[in-house]
Amino acid sequence: MDKVRIGRVVKPHGVRGEVVVEVTTDDVNRRFAPGSQLDGVQGTRGKTLTVRGMRPHQGRMLIAFEEITDRTSAESLRGLSFYAEPLPEEDGESFYDDELVGLAVHNGLTRIASEGCGPSIGHISGVQHTPAGQLLEVLIDEGSNLPNAGRSVLIPFKRPIVPIVDLEAGLIVIKPPEGLLEL
């Protein structure tokens, strides 16, 4: 498997070279541990940085690097995306954002015998990481009979609501609580 994106520098923080990183991995402590070497890409440039320290801050992480010691240097990292080899799955229940984006979304509350998993209502257009957990951004199909056809809705990525993720079939099945798809 190719490398996966594990985070992106949003902006500098303070005057000592820390940066705000939007993390897209569920193993922050392992990926961004002090001493770790991170491979980054910014436009067409590649850059390797060594983590000096990290700490949580307002739902994101503040990361300090050995090579970056002031705000001016930190500013030059804005937009840098970090990539790494996928971690071996320990429980089979972890998914990378890149694996989820594009999957068809089927409503499991309504069954279609030929599909066995309910009608397709749209596809995953993004994944948001919040302090409360991951949210799947679902773009509802224009032809859907839902009131928000053509717009995006956010679905909590929790087992009771998303009981099936089938990467091979390219789909997920949701069982949304009443009203969730009408928001």
- Give the low-confidence spans: none
Q: What pattern of helices and strands is seen along the backbone? A: EEHEEEHEHEEEEEE
User: Class of the largest domain in CATH?
Assistant: Mainly Beta
Rounded to the nearest angstrom, the radius of gyration is 19 Å
The number of helices is: 3
Structural class: mainly beta
Q: Name the CATH superfamily classification of the largest domain.
A: PRC-barrel domain
CATH topology of the largest domain: SH3 type barrels
CATH architecture of the largest domain: Roll
**Fraction of residues in helices?**
under 10%
Average pLDDT score: 85
Major sheet characteristics: 6 strands, antiparallel, barrel
- Terminal CA distance reads 36 Å
Domain tally = 2
Shape estimate: elongated
- Give me the side-by-side strand order of the main sheet: 1-2-5-4-3-6
| Strand segment tally | 12
Strand content: 35-45%
Any descriptors?
183 residues; SH3 type barrels; 2 domains; six-stranded antiparallel β-barrel; 44% strand
Account of the protein in words:
Residues 6-84 form the RimM N-terminal domain. It is built from 3 helices and 12 strands. The radius of gyration is 19 Å and the shape is elongated. It folds into 2 domains: 4-84, RimM (Elongation Factor Tu (Ef-tu), domain 3, Beta Barrel); 97-182, PRC-barrel domain (SH3 type barrels), CATH 2.30.30.240. A hairpin with a 2-residue loop joins β3 (37-42) and β4. The protein is mainly β. The model has no long low-confidence stretch (mean pLDDT 85). It has a 6-stranded antiparallel beta barrel. A 6-stranded mixed sheet has the order 10-9-8-7-12-11, with no helix packed on it.
